[in-house]
């Protein structure tokens, strides 16, 4: 790692009241340790639990915390895009708010940033239920057939990206396909992408929503639309 770095950390969240305080605190500690200046942008994607009130309390205590709220649930991709749109700093980092990653491992990504436009994590061992892992394997086998190799772990929510690259990508996905779109467009533009193993931990609070039938169906629809847009494998 060379020289101070300024980072905007983005946390998309939907009904993560049970996880948010710990997620914001841990990410704040990690960014304070490794960044010269930073902000954390939590995008509350229409949560129906107590997330809004909790975030208001956290924001009163943490000057680095920015809260963006969607009046209704728009989807994972829409939440990330809202966070990216509010980011101020040259590097943008994002992770989920479910505490399945250790934010201090951002150091592993920062160590490689001089060589890359994107430094992305892959889960050395994925700690999700078997059904979720099986669904992910099937879906991303199809992604690889359609687009070729994008990354070892396309959907790993632990990524560090140059802000100027994000601006160039002009992302459109509203749902879970946003990671596929991001990497397909980055590969198409010849971006330098480095992959780094990170630890993954079981979810201990809250409820996963990524495997809901509506989310899966939306991802398939967006996958077909993305293939038409990009012309398939590059």
SSE blueprint and pairings:
Blueprint lengths: L5 E8 L3 H18 L2 E9 L5 H11 L3 E6 L5 H11 L4 E5 L10 H5 L7 E6 L6 H18 L10 E5 H7 L8 H11 L4 E6 L14 H18 L4
Parallel strand pairs: 1-2, 1-4, 2-3, 5-7
Antiparallel strand pairs: 4-6, 5-6
Helix pairs in contact: 1-2
Tell me what you see in this structure.
The chain has helices spanning 17-34, 51-61, 76-86, 106-110, 130-147, 163-169, 178-188, 213-230; strands spanning 6-13, 37-45, 65-70, 91-95, 118-123, 158-162, 193-198. With 234 residues, it is an alpha/beta fold. It has a single domain (6-230), classed as Spore Coat Polysaccharide Biosynthesis Protein SpsA, Chain A. It starts with 5 loop residues before the first strand and ends with a helix.
Strand order of the largest sheet: 3-2-1-4-6-5-7
The CATH superfamily is known as: Spore Coat Polysaccharide Biosynthesis Protein SpsA, Chain A
Task: Give the strand content.
Answer: 15-25%
Radius of gyration, rounded? Answer: 17 Å
Topology order in helix (H) and strand (E) letters: EHEHEHEHEHEHHEH
| CATH architecture field | Alpha-Beta Complex
CATH domain class: Alpha Beta
Number of continuous helical runs? 8
Number of beta-strand segments: 7
Helix content: 40-55%
Integer tally of domains = 1
Task: Kindly report the CATH topology.
Answer: Spore Coat Polysaccharide Biosynthesis Protein SpsA, Chain A
Characteristics:
234 residues, alpha/beta, Spore Coat Polysaccharide Biosynthesis Protein SpsA, Chain A, 7-stranded mixed beta sheet, 8 helices, 7 strands, globular
